[in-house]
Amino acid sequence: MPEEQLVKKPRSFFIKVKCSGCGNEQIIFSAASRTVHCLACNQVLAESGSSRIRAVAKIIKAHL
Ligand SMILES: [Zn+2]
After folding, report:
1. How is the chain split into domains, by residue range?
2. What distance in angstroms lies between residue 5's CA and the mean position of ligand 1's atoms?
3. What letter does residue 41 receive in the DSSP assignment?
4. How far, in Å, from the CA of 57 to the mean position of ligand 1?
5. 8 C-alpha vs ligand 1 centroid, how far in Å?
6. Which CATH class is domain 3-63?
7. From the CA of 23, how far away is ligand 1's center (Å)?
8. In angstroms, what is the span from residue 11 Cα to ligand 1's centroid?
9. pLDDT tens per residue, range 5-58
10. In the chain, fewer beta carbons within 10 Å around the N or the C end?
11. What predicted TM-score, i.e. pTM, was given to this entire model?
């Protein structure tokens, strides 16, 4: 049964997001421990969660 695999998902990966404020594309780390802001306009792109961040901006691509 593949149940164990659900628990052992990759702990961290990179996701590319597009800022809704200025359109800047930025790659953020899923395991970042704090809120990630846009480097161009300082808008919040992702908020830190319990174990991984939650993207606020539009996700363009996820890199495992
Ligand atoms: Zn921005």
Report:
1. 3-63
2. 36
3. T
4. 9
5. 33
6. mainly beta
7. 6
8. 27
9. 555 556 778 889 999 999 999 999 888 788 999 999 999 999 987 777 888 899
10. N
11. 0.71
